[in-house]
Amino acid sequence: MRPIPAGFVQTLTVTVTDEMTVDFGELGAVHPVYATYWMAKHFEEVGRKIILPFLEDGEGGIGSQVEVIHTGPALPGMAVTVTATFTEQAGRRVHATMRAVTELGDEIGHGSTTQFVLPQTRIDANFEALRARWAARVAGTGGS
Question: Which CATH architecture has domain 9-138?
Fold first, then answer.
């Protein structure tokens, strides 16, 4: 992985949809506002945008940590911009801070993400090993 410049920033702007509001499936709809779990998804997405320009051929990234502190609401139809700011590269770990702001200028969340950079072949091999274990279990042959 090539070095990421200090303070490198990426953004992601989304429009909150009804699908992005709080609905816990089994428990049903709770609040008609932007859900914390969608904010977490968007934090991870913009965190990935931090590493993509700096990956070497054959490298891939995988999220390993996300912290979300959800401090305010956004309604369906509102635009939310999530800004990721690179903070540190420690070996294969890339850390970024996150900030979510509505089109009204209200900060509605902040936090951080960590991406882990590995050879893509290693990432793929880990997923294949998991698929093999799962297939063995589904087939009833064990696979521990």
Answer: Roll (3.10)
* Model pTM score: 0.91
Number of H helices, E strands in the chain: 2, 7
Residue 56, pLDDT > 60, answer yes
**What are the backbone angles phi and psi of residue 38, rounded to the nearest 5°?**
-75, -35
Parallel, antiparallel or unpaired: strands 93-102 and 107-119: antiparallel
- The catalytic site residues sit at 36, 44, 70
8 Å CB contact between 62 and 123? yes
Could you report the per-residue pLDDT of 87-97, keeping only the tens digit for each?
999 999 999 99
Cβ 76 vs Cβ 20: under 8 Å: yes
